TrEMBL record:
It comes from Pseudomonas nicosulfuronedens. Residues 3-197 form the Flavodoxin-like fold domain. Homodimer. It comes from the Bacteria. Keywords: Flavoprotein, FMN, NAD, Oxidoreductase. This is FMN dependent NADH:quinone oxidoreductase. InterPro entries: Flavodoxin_fold, Flavoprotein-like_sf, FMN-dep_NADH:Q_OxRdtase_AzoR1, NADH:quinone_OxRdtase_FMN_depd. The lineage of its organism: Bacteria, Pseudomonadati, Pseudomonadota, Gammaproteobacteria, Pseudomonadales. It catalyses: N,N-dimethyl-1,4-phenylenediamine + anthranilate + 2 NAD(+) = 2-(4-dimethylaminophenyl)diazenylbenzoate + 2 NADH + 2 H(+); 2 a quinone + NADH + H(+) = 2 a 1,4-benzosemiquinone + NAD(+).
Amino acid sequence: MSRVLVIESSARQEGSVSRQLTRDFIAQWQAAHPADDIQVRDLAVEQVPHLDANLLGGWMKPAQEHSEIERAALDRSNQLTAELQAADVLVLAAPMYNFAIPSTLKSWLDHVLRAGVTFQYTETGPQGLLTGKRAFVLTSRGGVYAGGALDHQEPYLRQALGFVGIHDVTFIHAEGLNMGGEFAEKGLAKAKAQLAAIA
């Protein structure tokens, strides 16, 4: 049995293409792997605060010096990190907002990319501690950006995931969704076909 962690980050609950892709992924994955445990964390419903002094204090101060707010911030980071550590498969649903990922997803990453916990610094450079995991990133985009200079999603997420040791990463882009008609339909159909092949 594998554990699958799904991270939703779309601000929209209705009409969200990234959420549609996630639903398709979960249905197909469950059909192919019925014994797997799937956990969904919705960052639009349970928002993760931005990195702030309270979280930094929770990370850096001795436990006996923590304020209640710092302790709560550390507990939240520990919970999110533990979910990621326990997962065998990570699924990130990431609509493109202003050429990049949603700020909610960035906040989640800021809570789980932790020195000494999910990566460590060595004499030869940083080393990821979350090896052996697979990741799938499901994006939705109004235009066509894959492989271009304006795509700040895929390069950033590949780097962030690789930094913690997750190098087996598959991207599925639903592109051209705001370009209308047949173009949008083809973009979504292509993404759905790729999803079906994965499961």
